Amino acid sequence: MEVILLERVNKLGQMGETVKVRDGYARNYLLPLGKALRANEANKKRFEAERSTLEARNLERRSEAQKVADQLDGKSFIVVRSAGETGQLYGSVAARDIVDVLAAEGFNIGRNQVDLNTPIKNIGLHKVVLHLHAEVEISVELNVARSADEAARQAKGESLTSADAIYGVDEDALKPEDFFDPNQMEDGDEM
């Protein structure tokens, strides 16, 4: 199906372009969300008549998204979750959780604006990309930790999943003879 794009769509085209897309994509996504019109003569005339209004609305949305991006730039958000000793989360941090964390800080971001291919399943510092507008994209840092104290230590660059963090032992200081000394064996002891 051929459609006229009413706004920029990633990997598809710019506003005003006539593109050919699959019927289901047009019917289920582009047309219901108001991102495109069917490409027929009546809609082409309608688009040309409303072009300046659409461009102004797109510019306004982009400037609003840029303001939010400027506020989010360089921010780090702490997510506290239960995890095992190795740093593996008992659950995961998904797009819904990220939206909740951002909402608690006063940012109104939709779940579809969070670019997270797979849920976060380990503690640590994670970069998450937010698509605020087709032309505005920003990356924020999520600090996933077991507690606020661990999050602060992690933000300083300390690893929470090493033997030092878990057992209070410096991995580099350990030597094999610290575990077993054959000279301490008595007669009759077996290996």
TrEMBL record:
Protein's UniProt keywords contain NADP: no
Pfam families xrefs: Ribosomal_L9_C, Ribosomal_L9_N
Natural source organism: Rhizobium alvei
Record-given protein name: Large ribosomal subunit protein bL9
Keyword Isomerase carried by entry: no
Domain of life: Bacteria
Known function: Binds to the 23S rRNA.
UniProt GO cellular component terms: ribosome
Ribosomal protein L9 domain location: 13-40
Family: Belongs to the bacterial ribosomal protein bL9 family.
